[in-house]
Amino acid sequence: MVIPSSYLAYNLFNEKKFTKTAELFLHKEFEKNGYTLIYKKINYNTDPKIIDVAFLNKKFTPAEIDLYNKILLDNGLPNTTLTIRQNNSDLKS
């Protein structure tokens, strides 16, 4: 009974750590630069982990999105993909 409880606690700790690190990344890279975040979903339970966001009025080029995906590793988020929703059909869903 101790082993499953320890495993569950360890996974919960890692998920909370990832979520906190992802929140800090979003704040540092986007919110501090004046971008208004209107949608955010952080998914720890996929491989690779996913940070899915949408912004009010900022459109990103594919090169900018690639750059932010590379910055994820420097911010302690390995095996993570940043997805930026930009067109109207993505935002409506």
Output the number of helix runs: 3
Largest sheet: 3 strands, mixed
Question: Cα distance, first to last residue?
Answer: 42 Å
- CATH class assignment: Mainly Alpha
Order of helices and strands: HEEHEH
> What gyration radius follows from the Cα positions, in whole Å?
15 Å
Residues in helix, % = 40-55%
- Our estimate of the beta-strand percent is 15-25%
- List unreliable stretches of 5+ residues: none
What number of structural domains do the residues give? 1
The CATH topology is given as Helix Hairpins
At CATH level 2, the architecture is: Orthogonal Bundle
Q: What's the arrangement of strands in the largest beta sheet?
A: 1-2-3
Write structural notes for this entry.
Strands 1-2-3 form a three-stranded mixed beta sheet. The protein is α+β, with helices and mostly antiparallel strands and 93 residues long. The chain has one domain (2-92): Helix Hairpins. The model has no long low-confidence stretch (mean pLDDT 91). It has helices spanning 2-29, 62-74, 88-92; strands spanning 37-43, 49-55, 80-85.
